[in-house]
Amino acid sequence: MSYLNNRNKAIQQYEGAYHLLNVTFPLIKDPKLLMGIINNIYSSLKYGVEAILCYERQLRLISDYTDDFQSKFNLFRYKSVKRNKIPSEIINLFIDLKELINLHKISPIEFQRGNRYVIATKDYQLKVLSIKEIKMYLELNKQFLNIIDNILKIK
To answer: Which residue positions in the chain have pLDDT lower than 70?
Structure first.
C-alpha cells in the first residue's frame, strides 16, 4: 500500500475518533464509546507509522521490513523517530494505547463511573478513562498527523 493511502486512512481514523468524541459521545453519553475512540486513535497512529515507513522505503532510507506490525514499529522507533525528530510523547502514546487495548481485551470487569470508563484487571487494579485524557490523546494524534504531512511534504 502506498504512503498516501496510509496517510489518508490515518486521517480518516482520526476524523472518526474526533466525531465520536465531540458529536456522538455528548449526545449518547455512553462511556463505552470511549474504547471505540481509543481504537480509532490507535488505528490512526498505526496507519501514520506505516505511511512514514512506506515513504522512507520508497526513498531507500530504510531496508525492507517484515509485514508484522511489531517489527514495523521497532524500525520506526529506532530509525524514523530520530531522523524526523518525532517527539517521544507520540511513541509513549502509541505504547499506552496498545497496553490499554490489550487490557480491555483481557479484562474481566469493566464499568462506568460518571463520565468515566473503568477497566479492572484480574487482581482489581483499575485503569480509568476520562474525556480529558482522551482529548489529550486526540490532540497528540493531530500533532502526529501534522508531522506526517511535514515528512511527506504535503501542504
So the answer is: 155
Q: What are phi and psi of 128, to 5 degrees?
A: -110, 130
> Rounded to two decimals, what is the model's pTM?
0.94
Contact 86, 80 (CB under 8 A): yes
Q: What's the DSSP call for residue 61?
A: S
The DSSP result for the chain, as a single string, is --HHHHHHHHHHHHHHHHHIIIIIHHHH--TTHHHHHHHHHHHHHHHHHHHHHHHHHHTTSS----SSHHHHHHHIIIIIHHHHT--HHHHHHHHHHHHHHHHHHH-SEEEEETTEEEEE-TT--EEEE-HHHHHHHHHHHHHHHHHHHHHTT--
Q: Which domain holds residue 133?
A: 3-151
Which CATH number does the domain housing residue 61 bear? 1.20.120
* Residue 138 near residue 18, CB atoms below 8 Å: yes
At residue 116, the pLDDT reads: 86
Report the number of distinct structural domains present in the chain.
Answer: 1
